[in-house]
Design goal:
Elements (H helix, E strand, L loop, with lengths): L1 H5 L15 H7 L1 E6 L3 E11 L2 E6 L5 E5 L4 E2 L19 H13 L4 E4 L2 E5 L10 H7 L11 H15 L3 E7 L5 H15 L7 H9 L12 H16 E2 L7 E2 L2 E8 L5 E9 L17 H9 L2 H7 L22 H14 L4 H17 L4 E3 L7 E3 L3 H10 L3 H9 L2 E4 L2 E4 L4 H31 L8 E7 L11 H31 L14 H7 L4 H9 L6 H12 L5 E2 L9 E5 L2 E5 L4 H6 L4 H8 L4 H6 L22 H17 L2 E8 L12 H11 L1 H10 L3 E4 H8 L14 H11 L7 E3 L3 E4 L3 H56 L3 H9 L4 H116 L4 H157 L2 H136 L4 H97 L1
Parallel strand pairs: 7-21, 8-17, 8-21
Antiparallel strand pairs: 1-2, 1-5, 2-3, 3-4, 6-7, 9-10, 11-12, 11-17, 13-14, 15-16, 18-19, 19-20, 22-24, 23-24
Length: 1354
């Protein structure tokens, strides 16, 4: 599989050869000349006369005459498709362009350019980002693998771990060059190599490639969520432009945080300048954000009905540009976005709220506004049906919304008045509202993603930042957003130049290295100053403070004050722009229409206040102060001035640049090959322009001429002293002096290095050569160590064989001695008499006594151990008893407090009952008095009416009139008394209100306790979920290890089978060896017998010879003849026996040789077997040890997780019970509070009516009766509280009784344990006595035995 990846990353060296014969290539004198279409074309120089050169084009064979200054040399064919353009022998624009184009046509899109990487957008899918590619680049050096963005990511990761410094990867380039895709690949690689749970790279590659494919994963681990963050941001922040179908319309800086071990523990995302104006208008052939089209083309019936969706062509805001993208299914992307949101932890309700806001933004554009037919410029809304839909989605009132749009309140002096709005003002207000709503939605999504990803940021040690920001843009109409984007790219290019050129050369001068400063002419500070410090943005902010300022006045100021700046260009005669700025990438014309409004970002305060109080909690959250920190319209300083969009963006950019300056940057320069989005096509002028702007040639030159690799003295000495150990003298040596000695000993070229004040500097490639030499040296040392170890083991094994052979000889000698000894009569007598001796029995008895003594000692130790355990248990029980006593005391205190509370509540209840009775009595008296007064009043009124009637016809009776007046005065006095009584009732009402407030305070305290318990419960639930996820991962790992164990067992069984076969062969050889040994022994015995017979024959021969000599001297001739005959016979017999002995010796020699060969073969086989066994056993032992270690670790983790899970579940159950109790109490309290609040409201209303209708006595009685009813309800509530308190007292008493019962049970168990302890102590005493008795008996037996042995000796 690796070969399949390499096929798209590297080509064989043979295919680079354009000419087989280098002499033929040199004879052609090839060179490059400029061409308008191809950039440069290859030609052969035919003649070189002065300042003109005649060439023949290689493609058309056309003769061309050009200036000598335009001719650029060509590189030899072996440098075709070179991976690092710093290796080119001839460096010029033509060679760089040709190498990039040649590699691009071969699908080799990545190329090194000195210290950074260049990537050309392929506009097609190339299989170089799968799991095999990740494995290929993991932990590899840059020179060992082909160019790739994975190599840059791995280099930054290893640099972070080695140097413990923050790193950053900057993907820069024009729009459509592939910055976003390369950013995603970097995140994919880091998520694979630094995941907290080591996962198969294929899975992570699937996550990355299917990041928006709607997988069935739930809320998962961190690296999965990290990969799913990009699809969500692309949905709501990317759009289709002329150059790019998935252009990022915002900038983002992703920080991936790592712990000390290099594992990912979190991430944060910072965003910059969302192009929110795109959601209300787009250029021709462009789209708005992807989210709008995904919702309209992927929504099902539920979404359509709930979000009030319509056909896409009916929306005014999104139907201006091109609504279709080739090869993009918006419906499928909609489902993938929802699934990614679920993986990030969003609920279905939150997802629906997000899409609801998107639908509302689209509907705002459909609000039709027109001017009144009569009466001037007042704007009106033709049809409020759209407003009703918008207000339904946003949760606000329709009338308030339309009033805020058409006639908003403004402050005029100290008063607020309604201001009439024109049609243009209302259109601007609704567009501003749509843009601000979408911007706040986008910020909420970013914040929600960060909340999921930044769980363990506090434990982070280092981070790798990945910057993906909008590239340099030159459109037909360039506005305020393009100025900010181009200003950002100007700052990033300045950082690149500073790192690659300025800081590099400053480092040389700081280290006192002989270096001639090179000016590459890439200082971008004048352009930055024109925009930032003294120029366009400050003037724009100043104009925003003047009420009567316009866009034209701003342009006039810019031209007047900055017209002399060389970087500011005035528009041409027919150019439709206000001014132009000369950027590093070219001249960009800008139109300043609407810049003041965009910079101030104003909003209708009436509408924003209405949205902040929305009935939809999600919409109210969007318009709260939470998202005001990064918005200009919501930020005002203390003096009343506001922070503009340009000011905020400049602050964020400065913060980003400070962060990047404190990291080690790695640059990936993205190149767009053409604007037609066609694969395999290179627009040479476009690519050349980007190469010049990006400083590619200058970077290669300084890499080749400078010293890009540097290392500190101490690190160089520590790392490479192994190459020249004799170069450094013993004792203390200065770092610089030591490095000079080492460099001299290494025989490096003097031009390839420089020694500074604190560092050693090397040219490109030298440090890599030293690393290779160090690796070779280490491998040789390791091989030597392995050889020494193997030699030591072989010598030890040979010594063991020699020792074994000597031992065999000793055993054989002893066996022969025993064979001779066993037939000796005295030995037989000794073996029969020895068992009868008493000493032998004494040894046996002594052994039995010793064994018994050991048993007694063991019993004593067990008794001591049991005693200690009992004492420890007693101590534990004592501690538990103390804790129970303390708990009982605490319960008693709580019970006492509850009794006091109960007594206070009872007394309070009695007082309230007395007050109620008194109030009821007064109420009854007032009722009766009121009835009487009403009757008298009615009677007097009737009499007064009669008198008035009589006055018209007759004279009035003055006495009667005076009497009636007196009666009226009496009635007035009674009414005054009634008023005084009402005042007393008012005082009582205030007193009851005070008591009600106290009750409310108690209720608020209970609610606070409940919220605290709910927070603890949520925390435990989240911890339980995390533990469950980790447990599932551990189980999956255990399953994988079990599978590995099965495969290992299978291999082990195969090895055992081979081992058994070898053992069978060994047994066969051993049996043959035994047979031969037996035969050798038999032959040796026969040889010994023959030798004995020969010796006896020789002895007999000598004896007979002596007798013969005697007989010869004494006997006659006949006897001598007989003796001669006997002598001959004996001589023949002796010769025959000698011949037999010789044959037996020959046969024995052959057998010995065969035995020796078998022994050699046997020893070789045994050695081979032992080596095989040892190797197999070592491998098996290593694998088993490793697997056991992993299993033990996993088992420990699993056990810990189980304990945590069980503990968490127990705590969860406990909290659930407490939550249930609290919920019940809260419900009761809420019901009581509801009743109280209703009663208080009614009471307040009734009191107001009493004040208003004081003169109406009839309503006074009715209000008094209502007040009495409310007091009765209050008494019922207090009675319920009293019952609750009594229940709590009862439960506390029950708890106390349970605690007492538990204490009694513990005391009983303690008594039982004390009895057991007493029994154990008695058993211990008996064991000690028994031990003493046994020791005494043993001593007596020993004394007796010793005395008997002494007597026997005597």
């Amino acid at each position: 599989m690796t070969d399949q990846v390499l096929k798209y990353l590297r080509i064989p060296a043979s295919s680079r050869q354009g000419y087989e014969d280098s002499s033929a290539w040199a004879a052609k004198r090839l060179a490059w000349i400029p061409d308008e279409k191809e950039g440069f074309v290859l030609t052969a120089i035919k003649s070189d006369e002065g300042e003109e050169v005649t060439c023949q084009r290689e493609d058309t064979r056309e003769m061309v005459t050009v200036s000598a200054d335009d001719v650029q040399k060509a590189n030899p064919p072996k440098f075709n498709k070179v991976e690092d353009m710093a290796e080119l022998t001839v460096l010029n624009e033509a060679s760089v362009l040709f190498n990039l184009r040649d590699r691009y046509h071969a699908d080799l899109i990545y190329t090194y350019s000195g210290l950074f990487c260049v990537v050309v957008n392929p506009y097609k899918n190339i299989p170089i980002y799968n799991d095999d590619a990740i494995k290929l680049y993991k932990g590899q050096k840059r020179d060992a693998v082909p160019p790739h963005v994975f190599a840059i990511a791995d280099l930054s990761y290893r640099s972070m771990l080695q140097d413990r410094e923050d790193q950053s990867i900057l993907c820069t380039g024009e729009s459509g060059a592939g910055k976003t895709e390369n950013t995603k690949k970097v995140i994919q690689y880091l998520a694979s190599v630094a995941a907290t749970t080591r996962r198969d790279p294929d899975t992570l590659a699937m996550f990355a490639s299917d990041a928006a494919a709607g997988s069935t994963m739930g809320k998962g681990e961190l690296e999965r969520q990290l990969l799913q963050a990009n699809p969500i941001l692309e949905t709501f922040g990317n759009a289709g432009t002329i150059k790019n179908d998935n252009s990022s319309r915002f900038g983002k800086f992703i920080r991936i945080h790592f712990d000390a071990a290099g594992f990912i523990i979190g991430a944060t995302i910072d965003t910059y300048l969302l192009e929110k104006s795109r959601c209300v208008r787009q250029n021709e052939s462009e789209r708005t954000f992807h989210s709008f089209y995904q919702l309209l083309r992927g929504a099902d019936a539920k979404y359509i009905s709930e979000l009030l969706l319509e056909d896409i062509s009916k929306y005014e805001f999104i139907s201006n540009g091109d609504m279709h993208l080739h090869h993009v299914d918006d419906g499928k992307e909609f489902a993938d976005t929802n699934e990614a949101c679920r993986i990030m932890g969003m609920t279905d309700e939150q997802i629906m709220d997000v899409w609801r806001v998107v639908s509302a933004v689209m509907l705002i554009g459909n609000i039709e506004v027109s001017s009144q037919r009569r009466g001037g410029e007042q704007a009106v809304i033709k049809d409020d049906s759209v407003c009703q839909k918008v207000c339904h989605l946003l949760g606000i009132n329709v009338l308030d919304f339309t009033r805020s749009l058409l006639k908003p309140k403004v402050k005029a002096g100290h008063e607020f008045v309604h201001k009439q709005q024109t049609k243009e003002q209302v259109d601007f207000a609704k567009e501003a509202l749509a843009k601000a709503t979408y911007e706040r939605l986008f910020l909420w999504i970013v914040k929600r993603i960060n909340k999921t990803l930044d769980r363990n940021i506090r434990d982070a040690r280092t981070f790798i930042g990945i910057l993906d920001i909008a590239g340099f843009e030159i459109f037909k109409v360039n506005s305020f957003e393009q100025l900010c984007i181009n200003y950002t790219n100007e700052r990033l290019q300045q950082l690149f130049n500073s790192r690659m050129f300025q800081l590099e050369q400053d480092e040389y001068q700081k280290e006192n290295i002989d270096w001639e400063f090179i000016d590459f002419g890439l200082d971008l500070q004048p352009t930055i100053d024109l925009i930032e410090r003294k120029g366009i943005l400050p003037l724009l902010d100043d104009e925003c403070f003047f009420p009567k300022a316009t866009d034209q006045s701003f342009v006039d100021k810019v031209v007047k004050l900055l017209g002399d700046d060389e970087k500011l260009s005035k528009p041409a005669l027919r150019e439709d722009c206000d001014f132009a700025v000369v950027h590093y990438a070219g001249r960009v014309p800008y139109q300043a229409a609407g810049w003041l409004v965009k910079n101030k970002d104003p909003l209708n305060d009436n509408v924003t206040a209405l949205l902040a109080k929305s009935g939809n909690a999600f919409v109210a959250t969007l318009w709260s102060d939470m998202f005001s920190g990064s918005l200009a319209s919501a930020n005002r300083t203390r003096k009343g001035a506001f922070r503009t969009v340009g000011f905020i963006y400049k602050e964020n950019l400065n913060h980003l640049m400070d962060t990047l300056n404190h990291t080690t940057p790695h640059f990936v320069r993205c190149i767009i090959p053409n604007h037609e989005k066609k694969a395999g096509k290179i627009d040479a002028p476009l690519v050349l322009d980007q190469l010049r702007c990006n400083g590619v040639l200058e970077g290669i030159r300084i890499c080749r001429k400078g010293f890009p690799n540097r290392i500190l003295f101490q690190e160089f000495k520590q790392r490479y002293s192994i190459l020249v150990p004799e170069a450094i003298p013993r004792g203390f040596t200065d770092g610089r002096h030591a490095c000079e000695k080492m460099v001299e000993a290494l025989n490096l070229d003097a031009q390839s290095y420089r020694i500074g004040l604190t560092k050693v500097f090397f040219r490109a490639g030298i440090l890599a050569q030293l690393e290779e030499q160090r690796d070779l040296k280490l491998s040789k040392m390791i091989i030597g160590l392995q050889a020494f170890c193997r030699g030591y083991l072989a010598r030890r094994y040979h010594g063991a064989l020699l020792h074994g052979s000597n031992a065999i000889l000793v055993i054989q000698r002893n066996a022969r001695a025993y064979m001779k000894l066993r037939s000796w009569a005295w030995w037989k007598l000794f073996t029969k008499i020895k068992p009868l001796l008493k000493v032998a029995r004494g040894d046996e008895e002594l052994r039995l006594l010793r064994e018994e003594l050991e048993d007694v000692k063991q019993q004593l130790e067990r008794s001591e151990l049991a005693r200690k355990e009992a004492e420890a248990r007693i101590e534990t029980l004592e501690m538990e008893k103390k804790e129970l006593n303390q708990q009982l005391e605490a319960d008693n205190v709580a019970l006492t407090d509850a009794e006091e509370v109960r007594s206070r509540l009872v007394s309070k209840n009695n007082e309230l009952l007395e007050d109620l009775q008194y109030v009821e009595q007064q109420l009854d008296e007032q009722m009766s008095t009121t009835e009487k007064l009403l009757a008298e009043k009615k009677h007097l009124i009737e009499e007064l009416e009669d008198l008035k009637k009589d006055l018209g016809t007759a004279n009035l009776n003055e006495a009667r009139i005076s009497r009636l007046e007196e009666q009226l005065e009496t009635v007035r006095k009674q009414l005054d008394d009634q008023t005084a009584a009402n005042q007393e009732l008012e005082e009582q009402r205030k007193k009851l209100n005070k008591e009600l407030n106290d009750v409310r305070a108690d209720l608020d305290q209970a609610l606070a306790q409940k919220s605290k318990a709910q927070k603890a419960h949520k925390k435990l639930v989240s911890e339980l979920e995390d533990a469950t996820v980790e447990l599932d991962h551990s189980r999956s790992q255990i399953a994988q290890l079990t599978a590995h164990q099965r495969s290992f067992d299978k291999q082990l069984n195969d090895e055992r089978g081979r081992y058994e076969e070898l053992a069978k062969e060994r047994d066969a050889l051993q049996s043959q060896n035994r047979e031969l040994s037996t035969k050798v022994l038999t032959l040796k015995n026969e040889l010994e017998e023959a030798t004995d017979r020969c010796e006896s024959t020789e002895k007999a021969k000598k004896r007979l010879q002596d007798e013969l000599d005697d007989l010869v001297s004494s006997s006659n001739d006949a006897a001598q003849a007989e003796l001669e005959a006997a002598k001959r016979t004996l001589q023949i017999t002796v010769d025959e026996q000698k011949q037999q002995i010789i044959e037996l010796e020959d046969e024995l020699q052959l057998v010995e040789q065969a035995k020796l060969r078998l022994e050699v073969n046997m020893s070789a086989m045994e050695k081979k077997m032992k080596e095989v066994d040892q190797t197999a056993m070592e491998e098996e032992h290593k694998k088993l040890k490793q697997l056991n270690r992993q299993i033990r670790v996993l088992e420990e983790e699993l056990e810990n997780e189980r304990r945590i899970s069980s503990k968490t579940s127990a705590e969860k159950r406990k909290l659930d019970l407490e939550m249930a109790d609290l919920k019940e109490r809260l419900e009761e309290e809420q019901r009581g509070r509801t009743r109280d609040s209703r009663a208080v409201k009614k009471l307040e209303k009734r009191i107001a009516l009493l004040y208003e209708e004081r003169e109406e006595d009839s309503k006074l009685a009715e209000s008094s009766s209502q007040e009495a009813a409310k007091l009765r309800e209050k008494i019922k509530k207090l009675q319920a509280e009293l019952d609750t308190a009594e229940d709590e007292v009862t439960s506390s008493m029950a708890k106390a009784r349970r605690a007492e019962r538990e204490a009694q049970d513990m005391q009983e168990s303690l008594a039982v344990l004390q009895e057991e302890n007493t029994k154990l102590r008695s058993m211990l005493r008996r064991a000690r006595l028994r031990r003493e008795e046994l020791v005494g008996d043993t001593e007596q037996v020993l004394d007796t035995t010793l005395s008997e042995s002494v007597v026997d000796d005597e």
